[in-house]
Amino acid sequence: MKTRASIHRHFSKQKNYQGVFFITGFHKKSERFSVGTLKNNAVAELGSFSEGLKKEEKSALEQIINKKAVSRSGLKLQIAPGICVELAFTKMEKRLLTNPRFLRFRTDIDWTECTWGNLLIGNDSVKQEVHITHPDKPLWKEPPIVKDQYISYLYEIAPLILPFLQQRMLTVLRYPHGIHGEGFYQKNCPAYAPEFIKTYLADDIHYIVCNDLSTLLWLGNQLALEFHVPFHHIGNANPYEIVFDLDPPSQAYFPLAVKAALEMKQLFDKFSIQSYPKISGNKGLQIHVPMADAPLTFEEARHFTSFIAAYIVEKHPHEFTVERMKKKRGNRLYIDYVQHWRGKTIICPYSTRGREGAPVAAPLSWEEVTAALRPDQYNIFTVLERINKIGCPFHDYFEQKNEHLLEMIKKIKAVKA
Predict the structure, then answer these.
(1) Residue 201 pLDDT more than 60?
(2) Are 18 and 89 within 8 A, CB to CB?
(3) What is this structure's pTM?
(4) Are residues 116 and 138 in the same domain?
C-alpha cells in the first residue's frame, strides 16, 4: 500500500475519456458551449467545447440557448441545466477538460444524472451493472452530503480501503433512506445482486467478499454506509490482526481513550511490537496490531489481549475497566479485548459511520494521538484532504510481521502456567 498518490486521481493521465455533461451556457466571442456536472451537490463547470458539432447542430444549440438564457453577462449567455451532451476528452487539468469533443446529444438522460460520481465510474474498469441511482439522495444532514458525494468518496478511497476488505466475509450496515432513516445490518448477499459479486458460504450465510472496486461501488449504491470485517481471512482460521477497542462512556470522555492508547503504545514499544491507532468513527479509538501470517490462534492471541488490558486497568483502576456490563463501568473507559474473536467484526479502516457528521474510521499516526485529538475532525472531506497532504498512516501495515509478539505470548503463557 502506498502513502502518497495512493488514492484515485481524476483524469490526470493522457488517454481517451468520455462522459455526459449538461450545458451551462454559450460564449459568443469564442463560439464555445460551457459544460458542467453536479459535484458536491452544486453545479461545477468543467470547461467548454465546440469541436465535433455539425453546423446545423451548433446553430440549433445557439438558438435554444438564446431563447432559454437565464442570464446575459457581456458576451456569455447562461442557461439552467437541462441539455445533456456526451463528450470525449483526453485529460483534465486544473479542473478543466482538455480537448473536449462533441459526440452526441443525450436526450435519454436527465441532467441530474450528470454527476461527478457517474463521470468517475464511467471512466474506470467498473462493471457495467454499476451505476449511481438517485445521486441527489440526502444521506447526512450535517455536513449536507448526498449519495453521489458518498460514491465519489468510495471511489477515491478504494485503493486504501480495499486491502482491508479483500478476502474477508463482509457485514455491512445499510441506510436506504440516509442516516436519519432506519438502518440494518446485512450479512447475506441479496438475491438481486449482479453476477460479478463474489460470495463465500459460511454458517448458511452467503457473505459478500469485496475484492474490487466494482463491488465496493455497488455496495455504496446500495447505501452500505458501514463496512465491518472479521479478524481473519477466508480460508484461514487464525487472526490476521489484533484490535483493541477503547470505548469511553461518551465522547466527552474521549481524553480517556487517548490516555489508554498512549499507555498501550508505551507497553508495546518496550516489547518492540508495532501498533497502529485509528479513530473508531464513534466516540473512541481502536489500536490495530498486525501479524501478517503469524501462526497464532485466537486462543493464543487472547493471552496477549487479556494481559495488556489487565495491566492497564490495574495501573489505572479508576479510569479504565474490562467490565462488560455498562451500568457497572461508571465513567470509566472500557478496554474491549473480548471482541477480538472468531465470528466477531470490527469497523474497517476508512469506512464511514452512520452517524451525524459523516465520520470516518480514520487511521492515525501515533504523533497525532495527543490531548489535541478530536474524534469529530475526521469526515469524508477531511480524510481525503489529509491523505493528499500526509499520505496513509497505515501505509506499511501489511508488511509488519511483529515477530516479537509471539515471544511475548510465550512469556505470558509461561507466567500463567
Answers:
(1) yes
(2) yes
(3) 0.89
(4) no
